[in-house]
Every structure is written in structure tokens, then in C-alpha cells.
Amino acid sequence: MLEKLKRVDPVIVVVLILLMSISIFSIYSVTVGRISPLKLDGFHLQMLKYDLLGFIAFFVLAFVDYKLFIRYGKYIYALGLGLLVLVIFIGKEQNGAQGWLKLGNLTLQPAELFKLVLILFLASFLLRKQGAVLTFWRGVMPIGLLTLLPFVLVLVQNDLGNALSYIVIMLGLVWIGNIKFRHALIGLLLIVVTGAGLALSYIHYHDQAVHFLGETIGRKHLIARLDPWLVPDLATADASYHTKNAKIAIASGGMGGEGYMNGDSVQAGRVPYTYSDAIFVQIAEEFGFLGSAFVLLLFFILIHRMIVISLECRERSGTFLIIGVAAMLLYQILENIGAFIGLMPLTGITLPFISYGGTSVLINMAAMGIVMSVHLHGGEAEPDFPVPSAGSANPRMLKV
Questions:
Q1: Which ranges does the record mark as transmembrane (predicted)?
Q2: Count: domains in the chain
Q3: Is the residue at 75 inside a domain?
Q4: Are 253 and 284 in contact (CB under 8 A)?
Q5: How far is CA 255 from CA 244, 245, 261, 289, 385, in A?
Q6: What is the DSSP letter of 391?
Q7: Domain span at residue 262?
Q8: Rounded Cα distance, 336 and 314, in Å
């Protein structure tokens, strides 16, 4: 145990501490003394508790051999699906999404948890392919269907942000899982063409699209998220309020920011949820471009260290897990920040390790704990899964 503790990657630990420190100070800036309409005062202390629990989860999972999770991947997947179904019937609604389970004084968001569940399950699924090329019918199609099921369940809960994260995780793992290049190219073209077609159709047939989303399928909240992104001139004042004020706040930060606890927009409450989803807006307004760039640099260092660990890992399962976690974090970072600068639709996704939220920080820290487990145990034997022959080796497995 002591020997493994000495081998814990110090760069990852330091970056996580820095990100969480930024989180505490940022949350304090926009919540201290706030009691209306919500009692926000003290959220920074609550977040500190979540961070401490997150580090406990991080070190516990780091010292557990990750191959244990791979072994029981299908059972973990079944349990995760059960929670997603359960929340549809007895889940609590928050911010328009019915995605929370109340467990005494604790609140759990199964959709957040399932991101890690999906990574573990797909890694287990791909490992059993023993490095063979993924064919469409026996490889890509089953993975797609197994991802589509939780995607639909979470979409029903009005949680578009987490639902899309499953697709990103699947794409990352299918790529590293040795998909045929022509299949990957065809899939990429289909995604680009379909996405562009849907976006252009929404813009040019806006009235019909609004009627379909609002009246036919009863998803009016999607209109409020798509209009400010695709047709800002047609968006209602309520729909564009969040992103419009966020852009103003980010722009007003300039190079060096307006100063800690002196952000005009965030301190006046003109940007909603600056302690949670919109916490990047607080950083950008009060610390400017330099503060925002520093946060992005920390994320870059974190992802870089994960890729280095995957390069050093001698087992396929460890590489699968790290790529899955990296895809999950990259999606959250790009979606969260992109939404507030107009590049992405607003989906309510949190900024990893910084936004307020117990489930989010615990899941992300658990994911990093599994990454660290790969670092600590990645050189040990994997007796249950035979090594593939040289002819079936995956050229994209990132091996050294």
C-alpha cells in the first residue's frame, strides 16, 4: 500500500487540488451572503465537503485493481440501467429535468453516474474482442444499441447534456477499439451531414420545427436551448437571457478581469447559476482572459497526463478506460465553456471539478481514481483475457 502511494501521479493530484481550490473561491464569490431567492450562503463549505469525499473516492478506487470493475462490467451496466429506469418513475425534478433520486439527505443523479458505468461496460465489451477489428454488425452495431438505450432513457428525463455525453464516450471507445478506418470515416461523415442537416432544417423551417418540438412531442425546453444558439434573432427574451448576459460578462472581463468578487454581471445576479453550470462566466469576468486561460491550461495538463498514462499502460483494458474518461471530460469542458461563448447549445452540463454539485464531483473524482488505478496496476498480468496474436493487434492502441 505504501509503495503504491508513493507511485501516485503527483501532477494529477496537484492539478485536481488547484481546480478544486478555484472552485471553492469561485463559488464563495457568487454565493456569500446570498439568501434570495435561494439560500446560497455556505455553498462553498458544502462544496469543500464534496471535494473531500471526492478525494476519498479517488484514493480508494486508485488502490483497487481496475480489472475488478472490468470483470463485472455487464452487471454494473445492468444496475446503472435500473437506476435510470427508476428515476423516470420516482425521480425528483430540478431545473426542468427529472433526474434526481432522493436518498434520505443525499441526492443522486443516475445520469451522471451512468457516464462512468458506460465507460466500464464498453471497456469490458471491447476487451473481450481481444483486439480484433470491429466489424459493423458484430462490433459497432451492438455497441451503438447498448449506448442508445441509456441515451433514450436520459433524453426522456430532459437531460440532453448527459445524454450526448454517452455518444461522445461511445465514439471515443469505438475509435480506440479498432474500428475499420472506412467505417469510422463513413460514421464521421454521417454524423457531420446529419448534424448540419438538422441545424439547417431548424433554421430554415423554424416555425415547423418549433411546432414539432413544442406541440407534437412536448419538448418546449429544447426550443429555449436551440433558438439562442441557431437563431438568436428569433429567440425570446427569456430563452436568450442566460447566454446573452453570459457573453456580456465574459467580454467585460477583458484581459485581466474586473477583480475577485467585483464582477459587475455575476455579482448583480444577471447570470443565473454562476455557482454551478455558469461558473466559467464568473472566472472569465472576474479574472479575465488570463484566468480563463489558466483554467484551460490545467485541464490540458490533466488530459495530457491521462494520455501519457495510457501510452505507458501495457494492457488494453487500461487504455480503454482512460480514453473513455478523457472523452467524457473533454466533452464536458467543451460543451460547458462553448455554450457560454455561443459555440454550443446550452445543455446544463457542469464544468468538471469546478461547478457546484455533489454527484458531479464524486463521479469525476471516481473516474480519476480509476485512471490512477490504471497507472498503479496497469503493468500487472491480466490472466482472464488472452493476449491477441500479432496479426490482430490494434494500431490505434497507443502502446509503447
A1: 12-30, 50-68, 75-91, 111-127, 139-157, 163-179, 186-205, 287-308, 320-341, 353-374
A2: 1
A3: yes
A4: yes
A5: 20, 18, 16, 5, 53
A6: G
A7: 2-185+253-378
A8: 33
